[in-house]
Amino acid sequence: MIYSPLDALKLARQNPDREIVFFAIGFETTAPSTALTLLRAQADRIENFFAFCNHVTIVPAIRAILDSPDLRLDGFIGPGHVSTVIGLRPYRFIARDFGKPVVVSGFEPLDVLQSVYMVLRQLRDGRNEVENQYTRVVREEGNPLAMQAIGKTMELRTTFEWRGLGFISQSALKLRSELAAHDAELRYEIPGVRVADPAACQCGEVLKGVIKPWQCKVFGTACTPDHPIGTCMVSSEGACAAYYNYGRHAGRRRREPTPA
Fold this sequence. Notes:
Shape: globular
Number of domains: 3
Strand content: 15-25%
């Protein structure tokens, strides 16, 4: 286990007789650290370091959800960590084209509470805007240096398959040809394995607001954080994992009759 991609690069330095592969995952939040590590590996000519790039981009995924005919979401709380990198501008289409309010939020309890209030206030006033609650960190333009590092090392894939959402065009990143010497996809034969969610899993409906997590057929029974079968439960930040850890007892109380 490593703390950052630079730890993987350190392993490559320390073990020149071994090939070290870093499995690069995450949204634009983690992509800059991968990019800077690749640039360092290239500059220092560390030939036994490779990256298997599975970074994804947030805007195409949001657009895919918004394009769903059965969408039942009234607004969005934007992720503060991604927004620190990409800024506010990429979210403008949500308010402009789909008429949905967006509030970029921090992560402290009061941040989330204030962001929910700001979304509700927009809905009450009939406004559709992109507001920034996380002003102490997020800027309109994001982090230009981080975006520049991503641009130097990565480019968009033609398409990418998301669990719960299916294939979304130009929604993920791959290494540029300039970094071919460090590209694990070129170095090794990567099998095209597909991991489909079980038929009983309803993550897609949860992501679109069609159902609440606890309404899924397998929520809390076959699907738990210890044994997740759907993408919304796999991640500790997923809606189903959050409902399981913090809301499942409240859901049970709603279903139980009040004692006489």
